[in-house]
């Protein structure tokens, strides 16, 4: 990774929050090379191969140090086998010192072996402290959201609300919840490792509510391939979201260290001027069909001149149709059939 081509502080802020899990192991080695270089070390990388158990070879004040890098998840601890690898590397390279750097921690047997073999250990806390000291950072800076700039536009991701379903009962929850399903679209032009924090609900009256949990079997972190779409879903207490009002919004904190991205995206629960009159009349504003129709309008019809003409026709004449035929007993029934047919054709085509 070329750190001269990115906003380095922004990269660090995104990466530190997820212990560098959002970048590749190779990019993490590049970062550590920069960290040690900025502390006056000379670096000899080993071509990402982990040659003979060493990922980096450092030299300073005439001393050679072999370093093994373990970009592990915080629940995955470095074990004895990992320590033995770097001890073997030290013998091969005739190093003066041995070091392990990890984004996690070590098992107790691994720590005991490090003490006996004089292996320097940088676990997550020590590594983070070294980063803070080198680049003059602290926790206050890391968790300061004022620089996240949620209003700034970019071409990386888009969110759309697909469904809002109240009266949901989840195991181990005695109170009803409202499920919100969103679609996240990767427009960044590359495959990206993404981490999401639980979305926040900002109501029309400026009251803020945190979601209580993720819904199972939906995306919350991982790789999103270029151009792909994933569904994201969370729960709110139903007492906080029992009906949608104009101005209600969902805020989704997104971290993508490889893009130097740490941003809170905003999407309306009910987009401005989305009165899908016939759809709302036939179904209701909570139905998946309603949100599917809104998405069809915004993402497909609005792109074409003919589509925009149909949108204007729809909004101009929907009230007329409802006022003229709404009193007929079978009007809603046949309207549902027609809308379902249109949506099914749309799904097959697009």
TrEMBL record:
One of its GO terms (molecular function) is restriction endodeoxyribonuclease activity. The keyword ATP-binding does not apply. It holds the Pfam family Mrr_cat. The keyword Hydrolase applies. Keywords: Endonuclease, Hydrolase, Nuclease. GO terms for biological process: DNA restriction-modification system. Residues 22-127 form the Restriction endonuclease type IV Mrr domain. InterPro entries: Restrct_endonuc-II-like, Restrct_endonuc_IV_Mrr, tRNA_endonuc-like_dom_sf, Type_IV_Methyl-Rstrct_Enzyme. This is Restriction endonuclease. It comes from Membranihabitans marinus.
């Amino acid at each position: 990774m070329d750190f001269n081509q990115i906003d380095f502080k922004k990269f660090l802020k995104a990466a530190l929050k997820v212990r560098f899990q959002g970048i590749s192991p190779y990019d993490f080695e590049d970062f550590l090379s920069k960290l040690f270089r900025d502390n006056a070390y000379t670096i000899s990388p080993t071509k990402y191969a982990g040659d003979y158990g060493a990922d980096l070879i450092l030299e300073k004040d005439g001393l050679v140090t072999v370093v093994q890098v373990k970009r592990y998840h915080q629940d995955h601890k470095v074990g004895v086998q990992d320590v033995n690898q770097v001890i073997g590397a030290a013998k091969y390279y005739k190093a003066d010192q041995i070091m392990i750097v990890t984004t996690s921690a070590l098992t107790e047997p691994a720590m005991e072996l490090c003490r006996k073999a004089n292996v320097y250990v940088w676990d997550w806390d020590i590594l983070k402290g070294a980063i803070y000291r080198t680049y003059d950072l602290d926790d206050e800076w890391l968790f300061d959201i004022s620089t996240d700039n949620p209003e700034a536009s970019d071409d990386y991701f888009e969110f759309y609300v697909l469904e809002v379903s109240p009266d949901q009962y989840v195991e181990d929850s005695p109170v009803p919840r409202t499920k919100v399903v969103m679609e996240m679209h990767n427009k960044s032009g590359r495959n990206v490792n993404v981490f999401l924090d639980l979305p926040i609900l900002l109501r029309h009256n400026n009251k803020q509510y945190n979601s209580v949990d993720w819904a199972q079997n939906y995306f919350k972190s991982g790789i999103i391939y270029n151009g792909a779409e994933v569904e994201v879903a969370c729960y709110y207490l139903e007492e906080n979201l029992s009906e949608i009002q104009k101005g209600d919004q969902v805020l989704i904190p997104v971290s993508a260290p490889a893009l130097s991205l740490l941003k809170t995206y905003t999407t309306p629960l009910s987009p401005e001027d989305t009165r899908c009159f016939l759809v709302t009349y036939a179904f209701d504003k909570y139905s998946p069909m309603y949100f599917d129709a809104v998405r069809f309008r915004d993402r497909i019809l609005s792109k074409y001149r003919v589509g925009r003409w149909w949108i204007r026709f729809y909004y101009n004449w929907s009230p007329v149709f409802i006022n003229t035929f709404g009193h007929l007993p079978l009007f809603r029934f046949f309207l549902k059939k027609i809308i379902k047919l249109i949506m099914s054709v749309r799904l097959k085509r697009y």
